[in-house]
Amino acid sequence: MDTRQPLPALACFLLFSCFLYKAAPTSALSDSEADYIARRQLLTLPENGDLPEGYENTVKTTETFENERLRRAFIALQAWKKTIYSDPLNITRNWFGPNVCSYRGVFCAPALGIPKWTVVAGIDLNHANIVGYIPVEFGLLTDLALLHLNSNRFCGIIPKSLSKLTRMYEFDISNNRFSGPFPRVVTTWKSIRYIDLRFNNFEGCLPPEIFEKDLDALFLNDNQFTCTIPETIGKSTVSAMTFANNKFKGCLPRSIGEMWRLNELIFTNNDLGCCFPSEIGLLGNVTVVDISFNSFTGSLPQSLSSLKKVDILDVSHNKLTGTVLENVCKLPTLSNFTFSHNYFSEESKACVSPGRDDVVLDDTGNCLAGRIKQKLAKECQPVVSKPVDCNKDQYVVLSSSSKPNSRMPKPKSLVQVHPTPKP
Ligand SMILES: *[C@@H]1O[C@H](CO)[C@@H](O)[C@H](O)[C@H]1NC(C)=O
Ligand SMILES: *[C@@H]1O[C@H](CO)[C@@H](O)[C@H](O)[C@H]1NC(C)=O
Ligand SMILES: *[C@@H]1O[C@H](CO)[C@@H](O)[C@H](O)[C@H]1NC(C)=O
Questions:
Q1: Looking at residue 207, what is its pLDDT?
Q2: Number of domains composing the chain
Q3: Residue 245 is part of a domain; what is its CATH number?
Q4: Which Pfam families is this protein grouped with (predicted)?
């Protein structure tokens, strides 16, 4: 067999980079090494990561294949194997010869539309701890519906050629060292339902189209995303979504109240601000709301008391002011309400710990008179005396809106992190 060599010098370089990584005593690839690999990988990607039409015809193979699609899969898998420097569990050891369906981690199924053809429909290399990257030739695996690469050490970017994987349904590349912008190619897949990009080094903005896909789950936590969250979020059909541990900034779009399928709302540890949108109260099915470790201002919306299924409510480590309301602390299924490290200056009796036996309440680090472990008066005074008015500045009510509760932010509010405090 004679699959095309990427570019020998660069390939060697990539292997060398991964070698440095392997030799390091920690299991982490340094940021600069990963960036460097990504940049070198870009240089080896023809047409900016896309695959020319009919590319497979330029590759010579001597083996015989059951059908043309298996030959293409063979070219892709051999190209991929070449990028693998370290495979400590020997998962890819039997990746040779024309019978790709027998390769470890590779799953075949009858082709959609041509049932007598067997094709590669899934690849599952979870927890293989492999070091390598995804080559452009991966785009030849056009029947792939499932890709599980969870917990490996793949680095570099997701090549554009993956747009040819039109049957992709479940895409899990979590816990690797992938980098670059959000892999936009996922928004081109018509059948995609499940996207897991957790624990990588993706950065920059989210494409607004991602929330217009018919997804069940979208996991983005523990990356380096920085932008505001697109207003399209309200169109999302997901039941599970995580944004935690990134650097998202700006306001939470009010359209979030339209995500009625959502079970958990997790935004912990970002740079989000503004008033917490009252539309949250429309999410009657959520069980977890965690907006801790952000810079939300103003008072908690009254509408929180509509979250009749909420179990865990964590608003700690923000800049919230005003009163912690009784009807929130008395929510029927609440088990843990943490509102510590804010600027609350009043709390209902029902919110004072120990209150109900079945609810953990934490009010420390606030400005509550007569409670222990509060902020110093000089720290509280400037904030408590000038609370942010959540009805002002930040949003405008669209009177033409069909939904009485659906308020849209003014475009400028997307970049306005903190509304002007009341004089
Ligand atoms: C993988 O293969 C190499 C060489 O064949 C062998 O030395 C090593 O022990 C194998 N590792 C595992 C985890 O099977
Ligand atoms: C909760 O989910 C059900 C379907 O699972 C849906 O019919 C209902 O409208 C949702 N409730 C709210 C308040 O969104
Ligand atoms: C309650 O939630 C807080 C914050 O999420 C957490 O740190 C704490 O351990 C929880 N307490 C219990 C008893 O589960």
A1: 95
A2: 1
A3: 3.80.10.10
A4: LRR_1, LRRNT_2
